[in-house]
Amino acid sequence: MSSAGTRGLPHVDAVTPAVLVLSGPVSRGELPRLCDEVRALLEAGRAGVVVCDVGGLGPPGLAVVDLLARLELTARRAGGRIRLRDPDPALHALLDLVGLRFETEGQPEQREPPLGVEEAVEAGDAAV
């Protein structure tokens, strides 16, 4: 049994994740609506990821941490996850402090050094 090979590159369907822009201080009353939006974006898309643009949220606090934790929980229950875009360094620090880890756009994978970083070699080190 044989099959004819196809010419050229195989078809690649690039999937772009949906983006949810979070701006201004978000009140607790808006939380159900935002969770519904995350759920709807995951159901409508094929990427399994919703990018949350958090650049306009303002100064981070525990309310922002609560919001992101609930959005992540909603996404996980719907079979997806969220990814942060443009987070403030203070937000990163606060999320680390409370033990929450979020994937961030442009972030190198774990155990992968950022581009342009080389390990230093000490004189006298044995060659491997």
Question: Could you explain how this protein is built, in words?
Answer:
The protein has a domain at 18-104: 2-Layer Sandwich (Transcription Regulator spoIIAA). The chain is α/β, with parallel strands linked by helices. The protein has helices spanning 31-44, 62-77, 89-98, and strands at 18-23, 49-56, 81-85, 103-104. The protein has a four-stranded parallel sheet with strand order 1-2-3-4. α1 (31-44) runs parallel beside α2 (62-77). β2 (49-56), α2 and β3 (81-85) form a beta-alpha-beta unit. The longest helix is centred in the middle third of the chain and has 16 residues, at 62-77. It has three helices and four strands. The mean pLDDT is 83. The chain is extended, with a radius of gyration of 20 Å.
Features:
single chain, 128 residues, alpha/beta, extended
User: Can you list the strand order of the major beta sheet?
Assistant: 1-2-3-4
pLDDT averaged over residues? 83
Given as residue ranges, the uncertain stretches (5+ residues, pLDDT < 50) are none
What overall form do the CA principal axes indicate?
extended
In this structure, how is the largest beta sheet organized? 4 strands, parallel
Q: What structural class do you assign from the helix and strand content? A: alpha/beta
Please state the oligomeric state of the protein chains shown. Answer: single chain
Residue fraction in strands = 15-25%
Considering DSSP H and I runs of 4 or more, what fraction of the residues is helical? 25-40%
DSSP strand count: 4
CATH superfamily membership of the domain at 18-104: STAS domain
Number of helices: 3
Q: Rg, please?
A: 20 Å
CATH architecture of the domain at 18-104: 2-Layer Sandwich
N-end to C-end Cα span: 49 Å
In CATH, what is the class of the domain at 18-104?
Alpha Beta
CATH fold description of the domain at 18-104:
Transcription Regulator spoIIAA
The H-and-E topology, N to C, reads as EHEHEHE
